[in-house]
Amino acid sequence: MPNRIQRIAAHPAVKAGYFVLLLAATGFYLVRWGDRLPQFLGQIRFAPVASAFAVTYLSSLLYSYIQYRIYRRLEAHTPYWTVFRIISISQLGKYLPGKVMFAGNFYLLSRAAGIGNLQIGASFAISMAFWILTASLCGLPVLGLLQPTLRYLVLLLPLLLVVAIHPRFLRWLLQIAQRIGGRVQGTRTAPSPDVTAPDASAQDDLLSRLDAGFYLRLAFLYLATWLLAGLGAYLCLAAFVKVEPAIMPLALASIALGTVAGFLALFAPVGLGVREGIGTLILAPVVGAEVALLSMVLLRGITVVVDLSLALLAMVTGRWAAAQAKLQE
C-alpha cells in the first residue's frame, strides 16, 4: 500500500494536475484582486516581516532541540548540532510529493550518525505523533469553521495518537516494522551486524524510559513550537494590516491545521497550496480574503527561505566537521 501511494503521488499526471490547479487558482485571485495587489504590496511593513523571520528560525531550532531530547531519552547520545543537521537536511524531503524523502533522509542521516534502528523508529513515531497531536489541540478554537468530517477528525485524532504513543502499543508497532524491514532486507542482502534488530529486553529497557512526565514535557515543547509558528502567522498579518492580539488563536490554528493537512496531502510538495487554502479559510472572516491569502503567501516565502538557509548551514557545517575529522586522523 505505501509503495502504491508513493507511485500515485509521484506520477507525472498527478504532479501536473496539481500544479495546473495551483496556476488556475493563482490566475483567479490575480483577476479578482489584481488591481489591489500593488496597494497591498506597498503596505508591507518591514518590522513585522523581520520579526516573522526571527520567530520562524527560532521555531525550527526548537524543533531540532525536541528531536535531540527524544534521542537523548532513548539513550542515543548525539550532539545537538548533529541532530540539527539531520532535521534541517531531512526537511528538504518535504518539498517532494509523497514526503517519502523526508522519512528516508531522517533514517539515513540518523544511521550515519551512529543511531540505532530502534531509536530512529521510536523517535520518529513519537515525534510525528506529538507534532500532529499538539497541532490538533491548537486547532480547537476554529472547530466551528471546519466541515463536519474535519471537525470530528480534529477531535478524534488526539485520542488515537495518545494510544499510539503508549509504550506497549509503540512496542507492538516497532516489532511489526522490524519484521517488515527484515523481510525486505532479506530479499536483497544479508543484514550487517550493526543493523540487526535489538532483542526484546533492549526494547523494554528503552521504551520504559518513555514515562508520563517525559511525554508532558514533550507536549509542552511542541506547543511552544506551534505558538512560535502561530506568532509568525500573526506577524505576517500585521505586515499588511493592523491586527488585534485577539486574532492570535486564529493565526495559531491556521498555521497548525494548515501545516499538518499539507503534510498529510501526499500530492502537495511541502503542502503547497493546502496550507495557504486552510489558512485563508480560517483567517478570511476576520481580516478579509485578500489579506489572509497574502499573509499566507508571505509566510510560505519566509518558511522556504528558513528551510533552505538552515539546510545549507547544516550541509556546510557537516562538511567542515568531516574535514576536521580527517585532519585529526
Structure notes:
With 329 residues, the chain is mainly alpha-helical. It has one domain (2-165, 210-328). It contains 14 helices and no strands. It has helices at residues 2-10, 12-33, 37-42, 46-73, 80-90, 100-112, 117-138, 148-164, 167-186, 200-207, 212-238, 248-264, 274-287, 289-328. The longest helix has 40 residues, at 289-328. The protein starts with a helix and ends with a helix. Residues 183-197 have low confidence and may be disordered.
SSE blueprint and pairings:
Elements lengths: L1 H9 L1 H22 L3 H6 L3 H28 L6 H11 L9 H13 L4 H22 L9 H17 L2 H20 L13 H8 L4 H27 L9 H17 L9 H14 L1 H40 L1
Helix pairs in contact: 4-5, 4-7, 4-11, 4-14, 5-6, 5-14, 6-7, 7-8, 7-11, 7-12, 11-12, 11-14, 12-13, 13-14
- Give the % helix: over 70%
% residues in beta strands: under 5%
Q: Main beta sheet: strand number and arrangement?
A: none
Cα-atom radius of gyration: 21 Å
Q: Structural class of the helix and strand makeup?
A: mainly alpha
- Tally of alpha and pi helices: 14
The tally of beta strands, per DSSP, is: 0
Uncertain runs:
183-197
Q: Determine the N-to-C terminus distance.
A: 46 Å
| Number of discrete domains | 1
Gross morphology is globular
Mean pLDDT across all residues, rounded? 79
The string of secondary-structure elements, in order, is: HHHHHHHHHHHHHH
